[in-house]
Amino acid sequence: MSENSVQFITITPEEEGQRLDNFLMKWGKGVPKSHIYRIIRSGEIRINKKRADVTSRIVAGDVLRIPPIRVASPESPAVLSAVSLQNAEKIVQNLPILYEDDALLIVNKPSGLAVHGGSGISLGLIEALRIAKPQLRFLELVHRLDRDTSGILMLAKKRSALTILHEDIRNGNMDKRYIFVAHGPFTEGLGHIALKYPLHKYLLANGERRVRVEDFGQESHTVIKFLGQAQDGKSFVGEAQLRTGRTHQIRVHLQHHGYPILGDDKYGVLEMDKLVKAKRLMLHAYKLVITHPLSKEKLNISAPAPKGFEIQNKI
């Protein structure tokens, strides 16, 4: 965040449905709650150029106008120091680029790197890119990956590209696939499994976001394919294809179906993870097929899975 200039933020599909005040409090860690409410009620916060109410629900594609805000936390990404610049350059230098042109930047995000700052994280991937590449006048996340999920992440370098890609996500016009390692044994044959559990987002007492299966939740659809037994002999490797893009969708769907992902500190089983010595969340976005938002060319992007996702006898 910058404390000296107005910012425009485009809401991603993963962020939609939140109340405006809740979104801003998470976005502006360190900003007093009273200040958040004051700037909303005074009309300084705008959604699509219109005044907004505290209880307004944000929708994917909405553009928020946020006035200059001074963040209280000394760890805020607003404070650009020499250390921040050095850290940003280090992140970007070690970030594999899978595809780039005037409209898109697609990278292979490592596990452990948050896509944006907040909640005690001074620099996320998006802030690091903006700092290290000041020549980019526009750079926004098209979608998100959880901090501990690795793999393909898309960013837009033009607002027109961002708008079209968000529309494609809403209409299901992207093929996004993940590879995972889950606790087994897998007992449902070798075919595909359609998981359609409705998902509901909620907050813990400390403000941390969680998701659970609820009858009144949002419609959600994940297709699971068994790929083979994992090399540890106690778990299995599978592919997950997203048909919808809800928060923590793959993790919660698999956990609810009886196959928690290895290394999942939110929805997994710690005792089982210790047995197989899981060192990270074993979820990796490895394949993406999209239509380029401007050229209309078909793009087939892949990011090889890191070590640990191998199938027994098929390395």
Please, could you describe this protein's structure?
This protein has 315 residues and is an alpha+beta fold. Among the domains are: 66 residues, Roll (Structural Genomics Hypothetical 15.5 Kd Protein In mrcA-pckA Intergenic Region, Chain A); 132 residues, Pseudouridine synthase (2-Layer Sandwich), CATH 3.30.2350. 21% of the residues lie in helices and 27% in strands. It is built from seven helices and 16 strands. The strands form three sheets. Strands 5, 6, 7, 8, 9, 10, 13, 14, 15 and 16 form a ten-stranded mixed sheet that branches. Helix 3 crosses helix 4. The longest helix has 12 residues. The chain is globular. The protein starts with 6 loop residues before the first strand and ends in a 13-residue tail after the last strand. 34% of the residues are buried. About 3% of the residues have low confidence.
